[in-house]
Amino acid sequence: MGNLQFDTCDMLRDRKIMLVDDSAALRGALRSILSSLGAEQLTEAGDAGEALGALSCEGIDLLITDWKMEPLDGLALVRAIRAGKSAAARDIPIVMLTSYTDARYEAEAMRAGVTCFMPKPFTARLLLEGLMAVLSGETTESEQSPAELAKTAEA
């Protein structure tokens, strides 16, 4: 596993990652963890509306969001992204962090188009493993894009 840190730095360095959470403390903690893993292009949004606005102007490679936010929650954010006009934004990988640990929440999140569901509390190692899987495409079980998967689930 000696190359894991090197591979991680390479994989995260050039990715534009958006952190969406109404808790500035959690955004700060995520920023610290991701920076220590080599991420250099991090942007933050304090709520789903701010994230949607930023997505319309910025190219984002990965979005990490909390579920429980006000006034628009993370699940609504995911659905809005997957139904959006921009194909690039529709297909970005989305990692959802949540204190909802029941399997029915995970199923609902995945149907909405979440790429990786991560219950809180999580460790830096679990976050790293989830991000590596998402960025290497290992979590995609289908040839369909996340937006197409979300549409299929709605049908």
In short:
By secondary structure, the chain is an alpha/beta fold. It has helices spanning 4-13, 24-36, 48-57, 74-82, 87-90, 103-112, 124-135, 146-154, and strands at residues 16-20, 41-45, 62-66, 94-98, 116-119.
Q: What is the topology?
A:
Elements: H1 4-13, E1 16-20, H2 24-36, E2 41-45, H3 48-57, E3 62-66, H4 74-82, H5 87-90, E4 94-98, H6 103-112, E5 116-119, H7 124-135, H8 146-154
Helix pairs in contact: 3-4
What does this structure look like?
By secondary structure, the chain is of the alpha/beta class. The protein contains 8 helices and 5 strands; from the N terminus they run αβαβαβααβαβαα. The chain has a single domain, classed as Response regulator (Rossmann fold, 3-Layer(aba) Sandwich). β1 (16-20), α2 and β2 (41-45) form a beta-alpha-beta unit. It starts with a helix and ends with a helix.
Number of domains: 1
The H-level CATH homologous superfamily, spelled out, is: Response regulator
Tell me the series of helices and strands, N- to C-terminal: HEHEHEHHEHEHH
CATH class: Alpha Beta
Number of helices: 8
CATH architecture: 3-Layer(aba) Sandwich
- Please summarize the sheet with the most strands: 5 strands, parallel
The name of the CATH topology is Rossmann fold
For the terminal residues, how far apart are their CA atoms?
A: 43 Å
Q: Which parts are unreliable, with pLDDT below 50 for 5 consecutive residues or more?
A: 1-6, 140-155
Helicity level, as a percent range? 40-55%
Count of strand segments? 5
Shape: globular
**In angstroms, what is the radius of gyration?**
14 Å
Strand content: 15-25%
Structural class: alpha/beta
Cross-sheet strand order for the largest sheet = 2-1-3-4-5
